[in-house]
Design a protein that fits this description.
Shape: globular
Bound molecules: guanosine-5'-monophosphate, manganese (II) ion
Number of helices: 12
Distance between the termini: 35 Å
Strand order of the largest sheet: 3-2-1-4-5-6
Radius of gyration: 19 Å
Strand content: 15-25%
Amino acid sequence: MNSSQDNSIKEAIKLIEKSGEIYICSHVKPDGDNIGSLLALAMAMKKLNKNVKVLKVDEIPSDYMFLPNVDIIREYELKEKIELFIALDSGDIERLGLGKKFALNAENIINIDHHVTNTKFGNINIVSPSSAATGELVYELIKQMSVKIDMDIATCLYTAISTDTGSFMYSNTSHLTHLIVAELLKTGIDVGEININLYQKRTMERTKLFIDALNNLEIYLDGRIGLIAVTDEMLKSNNAKTEDSEGIVSFIRDIDTVEVACLLKEISKNEIKVSLRSKKEIDVSKISNKFNGGGHIRAAGCTLYTELDDAKKLILDEIEMAFR
Ligand code: 5GP
Ligand code: MN
């Protein structure tokens, strides 16, 4: 945390303290950092007797339904005037989906995020690309708000940080990550149980989708690029949902020769969601930026509005270019 980030945290706390009603929201296609950070900050602000509204902008993957108070994330009707809006883990305002309209009606926006591609769309921006997860920034904010971190908040923050670091495996994991997690463990949370919920509850449908997807692995550039396309047909035949493709892209990345892993998900005939991962050389956030997406150096994504075969060509060309 540098001094300007620290100042932003202090300004954010002043704003939170003087606001009665606060809307908080994260990005579409939610992940563990998104949902964990949302719930933790919402619970902390409720302890300060704030009227907190946690806006649901997309379906919550079943992986995270074990989190405490997950049902406080729900739909709200759009209000003309919003006092304070807090965006979490969202690189740009478009990522908020229907939350964007709420943000635009807000007198003040606090933008808390760790994506390198963040556009700083808030009045106050707590943006730290060196943080492994938004959950780390939320931890710092809650501590400075002088709210006691209880087991429920700790469970949510642990989930946020564990999922965004690939269980503390990725290079974004810092000594600070471990110090924060050590503090979270002091609350007495059951890490074994949380990890079973997060990583050892794969359904048979998801497992079969995995097998099917891996049978369709494509390799380019002497094995340095691995690619899989998950078609709508594949989902249907395995009785799986789009969220069940979670984990396939990291499995591709883990092949020894692979530097860049690419997963294409057919959301509809002309909408292809792309996930990119890299191991140690290629900055995939730059690749997804070319298609109006974003993310981190080692994990990024974008959406291509064209047919699957065309999307594959477009993204492969850009990936191959990045190796030159
Ligand atoms: P995933 O591949 O797991 O969907 O996303 C990897 C990372 O890239 C996440 O940090 C996610 O927030 C970011 N990301 C994925 N898709 C997009 C996108 O379309 N736009 C932006 N700005 N970021 C994205
Ligand atoms: Mn994140």
